[in-house]
Amino acid sequence: MIDCLYFAWVRERIGAPRERVETSAATVMELVEELRGRDPRYGAAFADLSALRVAVDQELSGFDAPLAGVREVAFFPPMTGG
Amino acid sequence: MIDCLYFAWVRERIGAPRERVETSAATVMELVEELRGRDPRYGAAFADLSALRVAVDQELSGFDAPLAGVREVAFFPPMTGG
Amino acid sequence: MSVRVQSARFDAGAELNAFSAGLENAGAVVSFTGVVRDREAGGMVAMEIEHYPGMTERAIAGIVEEARRRWDLADALVIHRHGRLVPAEPIMMVATAARHRLAAFEAAEFLMDYLKSRAPFWKKEIGPRDAAWVAAKDGDEAALGRWAAREQ
Amino acid sequence: MSVRVQSARFDAGAELNAFSAGLENAGAVVSFTGVVRDREAGGMVAMEIEHYPGMTERAIAGIVEEARRRWDLADALVIHRHGRLVPAEPIMMVATAARHRLAAFEAAEFLMDYLKSRAPFWKKEIGPRDAAWVAAKDGDEAALGRWAAREQ
């Protein structure tokens, strides 16, 4: 089980700020593919991966990051703080 | 007649913050030479010209600046504001 | 070092004074304040700032830590708000203190550049009839390059 | 734009707030505050700042004018004190406001670099038994070079 978190327009497209996902995906990319297969909302949110950033257990990571032992994966657009 | 102003250690060496000087010097350098000839205090103040800055009518200038029409010449060490 | 992530409005002047009062022998204090401004198109009603609780604090702490590693800082402060803000309100603030002004300036710019692109905040501009997420600027990511180049 | 040369102490936080309150649509505000700090050798009792009335205001106005020419500033503020100051008191302050943070930061650094070497102030450090004029640093003059290089 992995907690998936969504922020900004990713959250709006998916329609929820977070959810627990039952998955055996080995990497973030596999998790993305799995979610895309579940519902068109994910397809809309993950349509352009170059416009997305991912954090694994609250650290910025790449889509190739392994998920073994991971509790939390977050998807969001490039940050606009400051 | 030119008003000569002195600041910081130049003022301390000369012993006055300002004085009116009767001179026919054509340039700042000529004025410096004239003052040097008047009293050893000027010799002490103007010993190392590379350690001095000069302002002519309140604008930073070089020692070769002409004095025609000038009202005020100031001598001081490099500035240390800020 | 102090990091605060809050929805409450803050008083930038009071924060600057409190920050400066605690310093020993730091002659140079630099502050940056980001203020909600109108959109290019005008007519902004509010700005909503979303963030990622937990990661936000962790990311900012990491950025501050990196700044302390690079510059000899007497102190540093980061305050960043989230939630609903109206135009002219302060969004965030950074303050740095050092013995020399160059370190204080550089560290403040470094903190800003990294907060902009590496701290998980997202801004949404709310107009009278529309709302849009602020897009990250290419320049913001590029700004990080000037610090990376220094590391060599 | 506001330039003040004064012997009276000022409140940097209150100045920052007053400066920010007057802004329209400038999202970025940068401030620098210079604070009296102890000498390397320690034991400083006071700092005396001498200046050149008339030229001081003229020189600062020229520096601010040049900053406005180079950057798109919404506003700028310079306050510089003279007379006798004690450790921990503010010596001077610069604030800049712009639409974008890079302009605000660069203009503030430019103002500081030029105030340091081109505004007629001289600092004297007063110890319990001695006093000495602060020497200009080679680096201060060199700092101006980075702005000259940009002009081409």
UniProtKB/TrEMBL annotation, chains A, B:
This protein's encoding gene: moaD
A Pfam family matched in the record: ThiS
Name the record gives this protein: Molybdopterin converting factor subunit 1
NCBIfam families referenced in this protein's UniProt entry, alphabetically: moaD
Organism: Mangrovicoccus algicola
SUPFAM superfamilies listed in its UniProt record: MoaD/ThiS
Domain of life: Bacteria
From TrEMBL, chains C, D:
Species in which this protein is naturally found: Mangrovicoccus algicola
InterPro entries named in the record: MoaE_sf (IPR036563), Mopterin_biosynth_MoaE (IPR003448)
EC number: 2.8.1.12
GO biological process: Mo-molybdopterin cofactor biosynthetic process
Record bears the keyword Aminoacyl-tRNA synthetase: no
Family: Belongs to the MoaE family.
Keyword tRNA-binding recorded: no
Keywords: Molybdenum cofactor biosynthesis
Protein purpose: Converts molybdopterin precursor Z into molybdopterin. This requires the incorporation of two sulfur atoms into precursor Z to generate a dithiolene group. The sulfur is provided by MoaD.
Summary of subunit composition and partner proteins: Heterotetramer of 2 MoaD subunits and 2 MoaE subunits. Also stable as homodimer. The enzyme changes between these two forms during catalysis.
Protein name: Molybdopterin synthase catalytic subunit
GO MF annotation terms: molybdopterin synthase activity
EC main group: transferase
CDD domains documented for this protein: MoaE
Catalyzed reaction equations: 2 [molybdopterin-synthase sulfur-carrier protein]-C-terminal-Gly-aminoethanethioate + cyclic pyranopterin phosphate + H2O = molybdopterin + 2 [molybdopterin-synthase sulfur-carrier protein]-C-terminal Gly-Gly + 2 H(+)
Domain of life the protein comes from: Bacteria
Pathway info: Cofactor biosynthesis; molybdopterin biosynthesis
